[in-house]
Write a structure and sequence with these properties.
Distance between the termini: 23 Å
Structural class: mainly alpha
Strand content: under 5%
Shape: globular
CATH architecture: Orthogonal Bundle
CATH class: Mainly Alpha
Helix content: 55-70%
Number of strands: 0
Largest sheet: none
Number of domains: 1
Order of helices and strands: HHHHHHHHHHHHHH
Length: 313
């Protein structure tokens, strides 16, 4: 192979891995899924889409330099937390030089934390590295620049959205969006990789949205999908651990009050912490009573939450 062909091959492979890293935000090791996720992000903000690309590329690059497991790198495992850091900082902070420096450092750190978590944690840590790194970045930047560096929060809709729009916005909020079109593109991306996971994601957002309506939560927050995204992720995560619809719905239900807890009680953005904690709670119940994890036919299914049933493309 000549030098040009070799460079083309490296560039193509690298592009696929970066896209898989973005797709792994919702448990899918599929480059086509990552591309649809990017399309959804770009609909809301091309700058945020760029943040996701940079984050995934940096996280993956760190994994390559530090010689992490090649198969895990190829599947995008070291891209998704870093991609989330990249897009979150550009959603929450103005795109000033300090923000870009934090993005690079945060994406790199998220890759390292992901590796340490996979090595030493006896349970799946999901997006916990993203949450911890982003919280740390916000504390640091506010200590230096104060709140003036924050972006202006998107206003709540003047009129309540339809139920379907709120559910789809819940899908979009997984990557800090708040519109139904990005949410629809995200669901399409998941379905491209694994249609069952798309159904679980939709069920989770429906459960979270219904629960928030029942509790009379602010209609503006419901319309923005703030109660659907953690529920959507939790439903998928538990399905990957145990193929139980009941347990997936339980995890979705548990995530909703946690979504309110972080900003109200602690004064920090919830990000995906409610999904992580809700999933841990259900996994802890499974550890205490393995019978809960059995499927209808009596066979217990165990699967890594970071390695979904989807062909790697």
């Amino acid at each position: 192979m000549d030098r040009t062909g070799w460079q083309y091959g490296v560039a193509w492979t690298s592009t696929l891995v970066v896209l898989r890293g973005i797709a792994q935000v919702m448990f899918q090791p599929h480059a086509g899924t990552g591309l649809l996720f990017l399309a959804g992000l770009a609909v809301g903000s091309p700058l945020v889409a760029l943040g996701a690309i940079l984050g995934s590329a940096i996280g993956t690059g760190v994994a390559v330099v530090l010689r992490y497991d090649r198969n895990e790198i190829s599947d995008g495992i070291y891209g998704f937390n870093s991609a989330l850091v990249g897009l979150a900082l550009l959603v929450l902070l103005r795109p000033v030089p300090m923000t870009w420096v934090l993005l690079v450092l945060g994406a790199a750190l998220a890759s390292v934390v992901t590796r340490l978590a996979r090595q030493f944690a006896p349970f799946p840590t999901y997006t916990a590295p993203f949450v911890l790194v982003t919280w740390l970045a916000l504390v640091l930047v506010h200590g230096v620049a104060g709140k003036s560096i924050d972006t202006i929060p998107a206003p709540a809709p003047r009129s309540p959205s339809t139920f379907i729009e709120s559910v789809l916005a819940g899908e979009a909020e997984v990557m800090l969006g708040s519109r139904s079109l990005p949410g629809a593109l995200f669901l399409m991306g998941i379905a491209l990789s694994n249609w069952r996971h798309a159904v679980l994601a939709l069920i989770g957002s429906v459960v979270g949205t219904l629960q928030s309506i029942y509790h009379n939560d602010p209609s503006g927050s419901v319309s923005l999908g703030l109660y659907g995204y953690n529920a959507s992720l939790a439903a998928m995560a538990i399905w990957l651990a145990r193929s139980s619809l009941a347990l997936s719905i339980l995890a979705a239900v548990v995530s909703v009050p946690l979504t309110e807890f972080f900003p109200k009680a602690l004064g920090i953005p919830a990000l995906t912490a409610p999904f992580v904690i809700a999933s841990w709670i259900v996994l802890a119940l499974l550890a205490l009573d393995p019978y809960l994890g059995r499927t209808v036919n009596g066979v217990s299914k165990v699967q890594s939450a970071d390695q979904p049933e989807a062909e790697v493309i």
